[in-house]
TrEMBL record, chains A, B:
Record region (Disordered): 656-692
Residues annotated as transmembrane: none
PANTHER family: IRON-SULFUR CLUSTER PROTEIN, IRON-SULFUR CLUSTER-BINDING PROTEIN-RELATED
Family annotation (SUPFAM superfamilies): 2Fe-2S ferredoxin-like
Segments forming domain 2Fe-2S ferredoxin-type: 10-114
InterPro entries cross-referenced by the UniProt entry: 2Fe-2S_ferredoxin-like_sf, 2Fe-2S_ferredoxin-type, Beta-grasp_dom_sf, Corrinoid_activation_enz, Raco-like_middle, Raco-like_middle_sf, RACo_C, RACo_linker
Protein name: ASKHA domain-containing protein
Native organism taxonomy: Bacteria, Pseudomonadati, Pseudomonadota, Alphaproteobacteria, Hyphomicrobiales
Pfam family, one: Fer2
Compositional bias ranges of the Basic and acidic residues kind: 681-692
Lineage top rank: taxon: Bacteria
């Protein structure tokens, strides 16, 4: 199309991609971008009517790039662009790249947020920019009118024009459009916008929606179906903007709090599977209504959707019986990525809209873990990354560019505040931070909803309003860790009843002792059983991690990512003191929030990420902890604080750890004060809990 | 897989394909066939359980091929084949090619009718063998059991095995199977038969159905949706046998007898389109029940279906509003081939079954004409072939390997007995053959249901039972032609009233004369209006043909094919005497029955024919008679018997034609006895009837 460029042609640099090339004067900026593979949206195909191809010329001397860029180096606004500016408006400095030609060296900025209808970015769901290459593209064409001499059908002439103007060959067409194509073409006076879905893994590019005239909106959903919470982003496929984000409780909770009780419900009730499928789909449609209302978007403009979830949510959402996942060998009905239609699974979005579900890694490591892996990308880097998502099951991924291994470990619900005497979910009034003075053994704490510590002025007032209602997950970690750091509990987790002599906060409670954290209504204590529950949970997690480290042949990890809500609130330092995670430079331990949701968003905005995670999941080695003979010993070692055998040198640089007792070999009984047969059998039972 | 063959290896010739090659001793006959591209079915994949891969060794010295073939040149029956013979039975001489190895030179016959369940071929719908290459293939595999170490999903392991055993890569899977795959695999104890649909034009090969264990039946439908009659074949996709054929009236007739009245119904009634779509789909499901019952086939084993029909039937069947087809420019909503699902259009066949609809050629030349073109294949030969399907509209295709042109011409319903005073549809008692003695002008005739001519002994008895009820289409052609040959009507179609003096069979009837064909109850006559109606109809057809001949630049055609019911009953000689069709060697004029149905059958049994007709339709040049300035003159010329200007030299060799009157130029009025302005304006009106 363009003459071959030569050294005297203007040099054009596109930002933020950094792609550059020389183009003959007169080349449109849009053509130059396309030739370089820079993704600049265009719906109208260069007619200067959609406004999606906006760019900004950066003025100045970019010495590093040897470019002096100026608005004088781009053609002035022509009639078509002026008409667009008059009718639709064009922000200061913005140009339509389809209508601007290169007349000299340029640095061109491609804004990722091209706002067409003055909508504002409501929420930044992402901490990094995703290069867009969505599975759905809008293409406006003007179709030839019917001609008796060349009696091609309306649809066939539309396809011919989509090939001529946009290069789409051999397009398929969604069946539901056949009866509508005539009306739509005539209503648009032969101008029509087609939504083309192309996603190599499924089939040939397909026309999935049609509108009369220029249609300038296309949206997608990225949705993480958690057992507890369903989270959804509504995103513009044309600009990448997150238009709205929202979440809702998973209504399946009424059939069972945790995953296994939901599987049991399916096994016990003939219509159980259907009821839970219906419940989750209804909730998703409700959430869809909410984000569409918030974003002022018509659900009919939603053309693509990406879903992730753990294997049981994944199966129930797709209408598949999850019973097999409740027992060995935990067989998934389908582990590969699923391509389907919104209409097939009852989504109230555009009738032709597609749905993509990320692959599952294993029977207990689902599409959510795959999405988190996509988001954090251990396989994209050389450092050994540990990615952990803690829930009732913890999903653990460990690896780097060379090799990735994954497992799940049955942590149980202790980290979520269940099984803890004063535990509760995170909510206003819940204790979220705890410190214990090692001298006095007096605690101070903060509650959700107040900025003040309990020993600061004004706390009493806040507490009066909010109450002090219990201990949430993050504080459970902290209080047990602080009890250990202050000597209240020993290396093996026994509360030292002798300290009752020093402070009334330690008191006898049946055969064991407890720590009084807050005297009030309710009275908040940490019992020996609470400490044991946390020990069991963290041992399961750590043993799983350690197993993967052994598989990788490493004795430490370079970086740790906590995915999920739990990880967002805990203090990495305390998690490490407790021995929840292995030793690591504390600066390299980060909470990444809903990484699964971010991964879904990435797969929505760029279909290349779909291929990337499909390929990655095929490569990931899955470790089934229950089948590993080593797991039980690792579990028993991990019952100690932080660990019976593993050193924590990096942690020791940041925190003064209590002196370690002489390690008397591998006998778990030898180190603890409570080496009764009853305790040992409990640990072993817990170790065996990892599915047998 | 096999070592490269050399000149000392045994030579194997497959019949009827004639493909041959040398193969090392020990090669299975099935592998040899596959290597040569000879289609030998196999469902079980070489396990000697499905029995589909049967072959017969031809014994003897095949000097022409330099092969001495003997059953001694094939391995004796092994244990697996003996087990099959014991359990399922194997006819004399039949061998399982998967279990027989080549040990010497062989001539191998691949029977096209491999009968597995002792079903008999009920009806030969085809006059030639169609090489099979159906869009659906059954593949039995034994899937690995779930493995916690390699946690691939059930579906993913199934796909892996289909790739390993059958070479299918990157299979898609029908959405409805996802929730079923677990149960099916376990029910079959990990042995499962998958139906794979592959049809290049649609998408990647797809698993469309699954059964536990070995499933050895797969069927398809080939259906021609006529305005009057719907015809259906039920065919085994594994052997090519036509298991049952049936037909039914198109229930849309209650909305309108002819196509245009059905379009009007849609235009006048808001729910008209839906009502007609429902009616035709219900009729097709009824027919499906009938052929399945007749063939003792479960409708759930029907996995593929091919439909053809004229454009209006095509649109209504697919749920598309046909209104645009009722007026210029007669725009089709879709002209290309349509790929859809049986479930999408309400067919009660296997839920994953596919549907293929042949392309339409033009707004009045539909998928039925395309199917007839596929069946008769003018484009496959050098001779100039005229293919005509006469109905209310006549579809005309003319061409050869070099070029094909097509048109439709509005013949009206006269040939079907409508607009004829004593006309009726073909039914017992209807006159179907007529001869008139040129001396006495006495007629003799035959009626449907009797073998006797009316002047033979025993006719009166038959007529007494059946009645003599009217004249059907074929006899209308004959009686008018015989009236012309015997001098009752002139070259321009006027009944010679003066002949009333010679015979009472000619009598005055208002301002014109009539001919009495049969004195009875009812009295059967041929009126001047009847002759005129036939003239108008045949002129429209002939003018259309002539227009295509002009486009092709030919003054004669080499061969003529009459498709459809009408063509099956008329005598080509009389059609030519009447000037319905151009002059041609009478031996080269053939009725080919339901060629549209045959074409559908071909596209069902061999998907290569789908590509062939799609490509052909793209190449066919469509002529719109209404837009051709020449059409009116051709029409007027064709009003004469056989034609005012065209000679019929080949016909004259077979039939003594009345002497032609001196041709007084092109003025149509000059030749006839009835040159009144009224008559001329009627001819011209008729000529203009070709849609304006």
């Amino acid at each position: 199309m363009n003459a071959p460029s030569n050294i005297t042609d203007p040099l054009v640099l596109f930002m933020p991609s950094g792609k550059r090339g020389r183009f003959p004067k007169g080349t449109t900026v849009l053509d130059a971008a396309r030739e370089l593979g820079v993704y600049v949206e265009s719906v109208c195909g260069g007619r200067a009517t959609c406004g999606r191809c906006q760019i900004v010329v950066q003025e100045g001397n970019f010495a590093k790039h040897k470019i002096v860029s100026s608005n004088d180096h781009i053609s002035p606004r022509g009639a078509k662009e002026e008409r667009y500016e008059r009718v639709r408006g064009l922000a200061e400095g913005r140009r339509l790249s389809c209508s601007s030609t290169i007349e000299g060296d340029l640095v061109v900025d491609v804004p990722q947020d091209t706002v067409i209808n003055a909508q504002v970015v409501r929420k930044a769901a992402l901490d990094h920019i995703i290069e867009r290459n969505p599975a759905v593209q809008l293409c406006y064409v003007e179709v030839d009118e019917p001609d008796m001499h060349k009696p091609l059908g309306d649809l066939d002439r539309l396809k011919a024009m989509l090939e001529k103007d946009w290069g789409w060959q051999d397009l398929l067409v969604s069946q539901h459009l056949l009866p509508r194509v005539q009306t739509i073409l005539r209503k648009g006076n032969w101008g029509v916008t087609a939504a083309i879905h192309r996603d190599l893994a499924t089939s040939r590019p397909t026309i999935i929606a049609l509108w009369p005239g220029l249609h300038n909106e296309a949206y997608g959903l990225a949705c993480d179906i958690g057992s507890t919470t369903i989270a959804m982003h509504l995103v513009s496929l044309l600009s990448g903007r997150v238009v709205a984000s929202s979440g809702t409780s998973n209504p399946q909770i009424r059939f069972g709090e945790d995953l296994m009780s939901r599987v049991s419900y399916v096994m016990m009730n003939p219509d159980g599977r259907q009821a839970m499928t219906t419940a989750v789909r209804e909730a998703i449609n409700g959430l869809l209504d909410k984000v569409c209302a918030e974003g002022e978007v018509s659900s009919d403009d939603v053309l693509d959707a990406v879903f992730v979830g753990n294997p049981i949510m994944h199966h129930l959402f797709l209408g598949i019986d999850p019973t097999e996942l409740g027992q060995a060998p935990f067989a998934l009905a389908v582990s590969g990525a699923v391509h389907t239609w919104g209409s097939e699974i009852g989504l109230k979005i555009n009738e032709g809209a597609r749905v993509y579900v990320l692959p599952c890694i294993a029977g207990h490591v689902g599409a959510d873990a795959a999405a988190a892996t996509l988001s954090e990308g251990p396989y994209r880097q050389d450092a050994m990354m540990l990615l952990v998502d803690v829930g009732t099951n913890a999903e653990i991924v460990l690896g780097n560019r060379a090799r990735v291994v994954a497992a799940s470990s049955p942590t149980g619900p202790a980290f979520e505040g269940a099984e803890i005497s004063s535990g509760q979910r995170a909510a206003p009034g819940a204790i979220e931070r705890v410190r214990i003075d090692p001298e006095t053994l007096e605690p101070r704490f903060r509650i959700i909803g107040s900025e003040k510590w309990s020993d600061e002025d004004g706390f009493a007032e806040d507490a009066g309003k909010l109450g002090v209602t219990g201990i949430c997950g993050s504080a459970i970690i902290e209080v047990v860790a602080e009890m250990y750091l202050s000597g209240i509990i020993s290396e093996d987790g026994v509360i030292d009843g002798a300290l009752a002599a020093r402070t009334p906060r330690i008191f006898q409670n049946g055969r064991t002792s407890s720590y009084l954290l807050h005297e009030g209504q309710p009275r908040i204590t940490v019992t020996q059983n609470d400490v044991r529950a946390i020990q069991l949970a963290k041992s399961a997690l750590y043993a799983g991690i350690k197993l993967l480290m052994e598989k990788q042949g490493v004795d430490h990890v370079d970086t740790i990512r906590f995915a999920g809500a739990f990880g967002s609130f805990i203090d990495p330092k305390y998690a490490m003191v407790l021995g929840l995670i292995p030793d690591c430079d504390l600066a390299e331990v980060k909470a990444v929030g809903n990484a699964a949701g971010q991964g879904a968003l990435m797969a929505l905005l760029n279909r290349d990420y779909r291929r990337e995670i499909e390929e990655t999941v095929r490569r990931i080695e899955k470790i089934e902890t229950a089948l590993e003979p080593n797991f039980q010993q690792l579990f028993v070692n991990a019952m100690a604080l932080p660990n019976k055998v593993d050193p924590f040198p990096k942690l020791a640089e940041a925190v003064t750890l209590p002196p370690r007792r002489a390690n008397a070999g591998d006998d778990p009984a030898s180190g603890g004060g409570d080496a009764s047969p009853r305790r040992r059998s409990r640990e072993e039972r817990a170790a065996r809990r990892s599915r047998t």
